């Protein structure tokens, strides 16, 4: 193999973990949302400033990772089809639209509504970009499920919580629609109603699919046992769809309570005097049920982690970033229910959990920075996925002069699961990164 000096630069463009990087933006965005929603000192300059700090950090990371991903597929166009044929890596395409939606909430609630930046034009720009994100989310959901059925080779034993990623895109996009709708209502009630109605459509489909997959995932855990080693933390991932769906439905109930009855048209349902109140009560009840399900998975996760810790240590892996978003949205739903019920319990528990999520983000970020400094973060892509002896610069750009790296293509086939270095490949490929 050629010298490893150019390894980091090439890995950053070619790295087969390219899609998983957006889990970093998802986690960072959830921290920004938690500062904005924090019940103690809410809307104070301190919490707003911290929310903006994480927002702009998230924006910078999202922009950087997007540029890297575009460069990756422009320089190595064949990697796109190879990635889509991979039974696990392809699922992480859903992290891109979900990473983008974490930016919308703060851009609307804090930057546009609180600080009045950009006015109506800025709000409509976010709305248009949100529809683009919705389109990508829909493609990820229906498209990847179709690819899983027709192209990939899956089995119950090899199932991971990463199967949730394509369907959760709809849930996350719907929550941003719930944030946009009240802001749009002041300018165009029809656009706002369309946005929230479509958001409820998306969360219904996304939640239904997620609950189906969670049922199968629980059966997989019972039959085949807990994930080994560092992959045990994947049991926290079900907090993501349940927590975010609860938040999205809660926002939907609040919006319909404020706009119903419509006061026009001939629909008896939409013009009923109690329609808004009834919809809101139903949505609150559903959100509480989903919070209860998320709490159930949280207890399962704690029991699973302590079971593994009693037998071995859990080494740090970069995919630990996948822990932050599901825990962050669970904390956010808890705080939101506290506001709805005016409940000290939900406020206190949500605040504690938000603090633990911030601590987790800090620890993972510090460890990741250290790995970047020591280039440890680049070792796997360079040594396993890129044969540097077969890559040469062309016009200043790295380009393959031979077929694409063999290991990535091998992992697109079922034989990779039982092939060379099974322990390493299994830890990388079975670890979900939601």
From TrEMBL:
Gene Ontology MF annotations: sulfite transmembrane transporter activity
Chain segments annotated as transmembrane: 22-40, 52-71, 91-111, 123-145, 165-186, 198-219, 279-302, 345-366
Pfam families: SLAC1
Gene3D superfamilies listed in its UniProt record: Voltage-dependent anion channel
Residue segments, region Disordered: 412-434
Cellular compartments per GO CC: plasma membrane
Keyword tags: Cell membrane, Membrane, Transmembrane, Transmembrane helix, Transport
Main location class: membrane
Name under which the protein is recorded: C4-dicarboxylate transporter malic acid transport
Family of this protein: Belongs to the tellurite-resistance/dicarboxylate transporter (TDT) family.
InterPro entries referenced in this protein's UniProt entry, alphabetically: SLAC1/Mae1/Ssu1/TehA, Sulfite_efflux_TDT, Voltage-dep_anion_channel_sf
Location in or out of the cell: Cell membrane
Topology class, membrane: Multi-pass membrane protein
Superkingdom classification of source: Eukaryota
Classification via CDD domains: TDT_SSU1 (cd09318)
């Amino acid at each position: 193999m050629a010298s490893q000096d150019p390894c980091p630069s090439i890995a950053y463009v070619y790295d087969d973990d390219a899609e998983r990087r957006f889990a970093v933006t998802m986690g960072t965005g959830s921290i920004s949302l938690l500062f904005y929603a924090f019940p103690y000192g809410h809307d104070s300059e301190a919490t707003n400033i911290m929310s903006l700090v994480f927002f702009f950090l998230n924006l910078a990371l999202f922009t950087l990772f997007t540029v890297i991903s575009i460069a990756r597929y422009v320089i190595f166009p064949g990697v796109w089809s190879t990635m889509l044929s991979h039974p696990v890596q392809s699922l992480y395409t859903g992290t891109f639209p979900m990473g983008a939606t974490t930016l919308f909430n703060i851009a609307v609630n804090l930057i546009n509504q609180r600080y009045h930046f950009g006015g109506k034009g800025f709000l409509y720009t976010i709305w248009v970009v949100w529809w683009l994100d919705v389109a990508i989310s829909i493609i990820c959901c229906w498209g990847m499920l179709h690819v899983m059925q027709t192209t990939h080779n899956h089995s119950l034993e090899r199932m991971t919580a990463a199967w949730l990623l394509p369907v959760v895109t709809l849930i996350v996009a719907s929550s941003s629609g719930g944030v946009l709708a009240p802001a749009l209502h002041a300018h165009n009630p029809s656009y706002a109603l369309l946005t929230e109605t479509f958001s409820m459509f998306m969360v219904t489909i996304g939640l239904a699919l997620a609950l189906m997959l969670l049922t199968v995932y629980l059966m997989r855990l019972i039959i085949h046992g807990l994930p080994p080693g560092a992959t045990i933390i994947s049991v926290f991932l079900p907090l993501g769809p349940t927590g975010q769906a609860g938040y999205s439905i809660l926002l939907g109930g609040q919006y319909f309570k404020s706009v119903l009855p419509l006061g026009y048209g001939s629909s008896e349902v939409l013009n009923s005097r109690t329609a808004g109140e009834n919809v809101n009560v139903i949505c609150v009840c559903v959100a509480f049920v989903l919070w209860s399900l998320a709490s159930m998975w949280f207890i399962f996760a704690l029991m699973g982690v302590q079971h593994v810790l009693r037998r071995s240590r859990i080494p740090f892996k970069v995919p630990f970033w996948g822990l932050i978003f599901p825990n962050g949205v669970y904390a956010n739903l808890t705080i939101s229910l506290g506001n709805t019920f005016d409940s000290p319990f939900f406020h206190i528990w949500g605040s504690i959990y938000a603090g633990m999520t911030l601590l987790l983000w800090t620890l993972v970020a510090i460890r990741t920075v250290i790995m970047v400094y020591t280039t440890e973060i680049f070792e796997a892509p360079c040594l396993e996925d890129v044969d540097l002896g077969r890559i040469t610069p062309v016009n200043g750009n790295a380009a393959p002069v031979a077929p694409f790296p063999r290991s990535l293509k091998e992992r697109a086939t079922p034989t990779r699961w039982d092939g060379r270095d099974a322990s390493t490949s299994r830890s990388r490929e079975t670890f979900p990164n939601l």
